[in-house]
# Entry
Amino acid sequence: MKKNVKVILLKDVPELGQTDEVKEVSLGYARNFLVPRGLAIEASEKQVADLEVRKAKKAASAEADLKHMEELVQKLEGQTVEIAAKASEEGTLYGSVSAAKIASALKDKGLEVKKEQILAEHIKELGEHEVVINLDHGLEARITLIINPEKK
# Structure
């Protein structure tokens, strides 16, 4: 006689499921493996209800974050950022314009972007450059970076 119980997974378990999923497993598997290792707890009605509330809050939070990112993309898309840099007569920069400098210039315009989100190799020439910004939720925005010679 096999008896099964429902458990809520606390961590991802290979070949069983992901965190916060409710699964039906054999009583022995639950008691001897999942519960002692902290991988799952037995699913009571109250715990399943609490899990649903947590999932709903998580979904609402993700929805709000996505909306915020979409608004940021709207603000960023098509922006032009100007940075002054020291350059030779031929237009080659003595240093380079890094993602951190671009992020700082965007921050001066009131747009918060992490330097890790800016996809730009170190730019070493004057002129206009297209820069892609990778945001959360797979969103991206393109801005125009204009590097002008620094006035002496």
Q: What stands out?
A: The chain has two domains: 4-64, 72-149. DSSP finds three helices and nine strands in the chain. The mean pLDDT is 89. The CA atoms of residues 84 and 148 lie 5 Å apart.
